[in-house]
């Protein structure tokens, strides 16, 4: 049994304490997975804002990596990493690129067979 995950790259403008532009790329290691197989997504973020971005818990530096998955039935499942805090402690200097690997099943239940779509963005 196989399920197909389609990864889409997006360029997103994120807002922290000041307006900042962050380029986001979302990659999976392949297009087809076996049912219940662990899926890892690699999120690459590039800071195009010209100033360092600090991700933390205080109000002035709060930023989140968000995901949305559309399942085979067309239902949309959204999660922000507010509970997992995937970006906590990250500093993205101006012009710097960082990669984060995320186990998708930690946030979404992907047991139904079929095609899924996944999106990622930064707030």
The chain-level structural class is: mainly beta
Approximately how much helix is present in the residues? under 10%
Instruction: Give the number of helices.
Output: 0
What spatial order of strands do you see in the largest sheet? 4-1-11-7-8
What assembly state would you assign to the polypeptide chains in this entry? single chain
* Shape, per Cα inertia axes: elongated
The strand count comes to: 11
Alpha carbon gap, first and last residue: 36 Å
The residue-averaged pLDDT reads: 78
Write the H/E string, N to C: EEEEEEEEEEE
Strand content: over 45%
Largest sheet: 5 strands, mixed
Low-confidence parts: 1-18
Overall radius of gyration: 15 Å
Q: What's the quick description here?
A:
The protein has 123 residues and is mostly beta strands.
């Amino acid at each position: 049994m196989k399920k197909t995950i389609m990864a889409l790259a997006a360029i997103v403008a994120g807002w922290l304490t000041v307006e900042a532009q962050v380029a986001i790329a979302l990659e999976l290691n392949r297009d087809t997975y076996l049912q219940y197989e662990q899926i890892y997504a690699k999120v690459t973020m590039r800071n195009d804002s010209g100033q360092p971005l600090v991700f933390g818990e205080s109000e002035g530096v709060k930023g989140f990596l968000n995901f949305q998955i559309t399942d085979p039935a067309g239902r949309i499942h959204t999660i922000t990493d507010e509970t997992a805090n995937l970006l906590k402690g990250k500093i993205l200097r101006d012009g710097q690129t960082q990669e984060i690997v995320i186990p998708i099943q930690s946030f979404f239940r992907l047991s139904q067979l079929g095609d899924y779509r996944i999106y990622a963005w930064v707030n």
